[in-house]
Amino acid sequence: MYYQNEIKIGYTDCDEKDRMKLSAAMRCMQQSSSEHLEALNLPAARLFAENMVFLLVKMCIRVHHMPVCRQPIVVGTAPVGIRGVRFLREFTMESLAGERLLSALSLWVLADPRTHKILRPASFPYHLELHDSRLDGVIGDIPMPRQLGEGEQTRTDVQIRYSHLDVNRHVNNSFYGDFVCDALPYHALVAQGIETVAINFQNEARWGETLEITTHSLGEREYYIRGLHGASACFDAYATLGSAGADTK
To answer: Quick check: do 1-141 and 142-249 share a fold?
Structure first.
């Protein structure tokens, strides 16, 4: 079952260029995946009661044309594969005319919420139908850069507040989209917009903790962002910007 629903982009989801923010797109995808599981009679509350929870460990996104304010779009999602202990779920955002706006691949693990132990996919007691991919090779598991070089570095500290948290009492995954965008050069981001981004979710961040976020410039349009709380890695990300004055293709 490839789950689809139609939404309209709200004013508060958009930036000064009228484009949907990365964090808003991530919230939309997170909501769609939750609704899909509910449609399969596998809501999060049921899985939690059975000592299972799906945890997002990586999100890879390619922007073709970022949705704009008040635009109606169709969001699609389906699980498309299993790789080791990771479940692969893809997302699409399209205009009502069928134009592809955004493509994303997400990687999840099944865990025991009591012990945080990773569970093997074979231990999942329900049938989860895998769908043929609709991404057509436009987005995959984007690797993180191995060499950072000697490009410019900047650092920002972010204290985790009430507004960052969700029902799990840690920073909601979508806020890392804001952390990434806030770590990028402002004028370049506004002018060019996000083209691709990959975010690794490594450790939870909770209320009162401070994230030390460092941005490494890898070239004219490429950036590596890393977030630490204390000595622990919280997340890292790789982002590219589009060409100035043009939508990404």
So the answer is: yes
Say which CATH class 1-141 falls into: alpha beta
Domain map (residue ranges) of the chain: 1-141, 142-249
One of 3.30.530.20, 3.40.50.620, 3.30.565.10, 3.10.129.10 is the CATH number of 142-249, namely: 3.10.129.10
- Which amino acid, one-letter code, is at 137? G
- Residue recorded with tokens 């809501």: 43
Give the whole-angstrom CA distance, residue 9 versus residue 70.
Answer: 5
Closest C-alpha among 109, 58, 55, 100 to residue 76: 100
Cβ-contact 137, 102 below 8 angstroms:
no
Q: What is the pLDDT along the chain (249 residues), one digit of tens a residue?
A: 799 999 999 999 999 999 999 999 999 999 999 999 999 999 999 999 999 999 999 999 999 999 999 999 999 999 999 999 999 999 999 999 999 999 999 999 999 999 999 999 999 999 999 999 999 889 999 999 988 877 789 999 999 999 999 988 999 999 999 999 999 999 999 999 999 999 999 999 999 999 999 999 998 899 999 999 988 999 999 999 997 544 544
The structure tokens listed for 49 are: 């009661």
What b/e string do you get for 155-188 counting C-beta neighbours within 10 Å, with b at 16 or more?
Answer: eeebebeeebbeeeebbbbbbbbbbbbebbeeee
